[in-house]
Amino acid sequence: MGSKRFTFVRHASVTVVCLCSIVIMAVLYSQLTITNKANCITVETTGNHASSWAINNHSNHSKLSSTKKILVYSTTRWLKDWVGTKWDTSDVFQSCPMTKDCILTKDKTFLHKADAVMFSWDALGERRSKRKQGQVWILFEYESPHYFRPDSSCWRNDIVNWTFTYRRDSDFTLVHGQFSQHDTGYNVSEMNQLLRSKSKTAVGFISHCKARSKRDEFVRKLRSYGVDIDIYGKCGNLTCGGGKDTKWKGVWNVTSGHRDNCFDVLDSPYKFYLSLENSLCKDYVTEKSLHLVLRHQIVPIIRDGANRSLYHPPHSYVDTKDFKSIKSLAKYIKFLSENFDEYLKFFKWRKHYSVGTVSGVLQSSLCDMCNRMHHQQRYKRLYSNLENFFTKTHDTKTNQGICKAAKDVR
């Protein structure tokens, strides 16, 4: 089974992506320009209108096979830490099974020189920027659509070629961990003493209060049905060690050997971890239920908008979507708490699966990106409507769409 792991120059046109009124003008330039007008994005392009991919399709093989420079315009602390001293070198790609001839940089002076640019939503509209011909733009976003940016009234269409997000249908997927299937040597019976010593029911780490998923209310209702719950973070009354510079490292686990005191409490004395996402969106799965939690001896209770069977080994979690009400969920939690043999069944998967971190997933995606950069014609693409891809307006009657309403707390 292996590891589970879980595209530009258009001709004489001006595309205005905005919900406000802006005059559309035809402009002839040999460049693509992004400007911010009244919080809206204007994209000015030239080239053949029938072509949505600004690749110089030359027969010169040396140009196609030369080193590709990928600029990470929107960097994150965890990505900086993971790359470490390998910026501006090809070291990150040396373990790739196919193409290794790429360089990763965060030096923004290469904005008009890089072969590809990775950026988040917030990077667009910050400043006027010229786009070189043939440059691939990659949307790099790991938050749910609810939190891309405070003002999302202007959608940036017809400018993004590839997506690098948590979504499984992205060009490159950033999943918070993975599982490998093999004989791990895990002995459930040897864990009996630790598992039997657990004296508390459930724990959760929540610092984003009043989230769109209404998880605060979910916790209150679960408590009202007799489930004992401790909450760490800003939304609870418990705290743990580790400052700002260490907590994020513990979350992403990109620093070798790093352990965070906050998550050490999961092994004992708690039986369940409340993995409650801030948004109930398609494929939105974070560290709260993947590598961060499952490397500890605890059973996650998951509440999100994803199909968990695509991410987790069988019988490794409790999914709130499987219950008709919070009351019935509470009843099941109490049943497992009082019946050790039934609770123990949620650890048998560990005999056959091991937990990987986000580092392995990130490495695999970057290798894929490097390979595609050397075969751009094969992977040419242009997203004409990112709003449809990321949001698809929620239907309140059917509760269908990329993100759904929290109906279980009504």
Automatic annotation (TrEMBL):
Transmembrane regions: 12-32
Pathway where this protein functions: Protein modification; protein glycosylation
Q: Where in the cell is it found?
A: Golgi apparatus membrane; Golgi apparatus, Golgi stack membrane
User: Where does the source fall among the domains of life?
Assistant: Eukaryota
Q: What is this protein called?
A: Fucosyltransferase
Asked if the Swiss-Prot or TrEMBL record annotates the protein with the keyword Membrane, the reply is yes
Family, according to the entry, reads as follows: Belongs to the glycosyltransferase 10 family.
Q: What is its EC number?
A: 2.4.1.-
GO cellular component annotations, sorted alphabetically?
Golgi cisterna membrane; Golgi membrane
Main localization of the protein?
Answer: Golgi
- Residues forming the Fucosyltransferase C-terminal domain are 196-388
Q: What class of enzyme is it?
A: transferase
What membrane topology does this protein have? Single-pass type II membrane protein
The record places domain Fucosyltransferase N-terminal at 67-174
Q: Which Gene3D superfamilies match?
A: Glycosyl transferase family 10, C-terminal domain
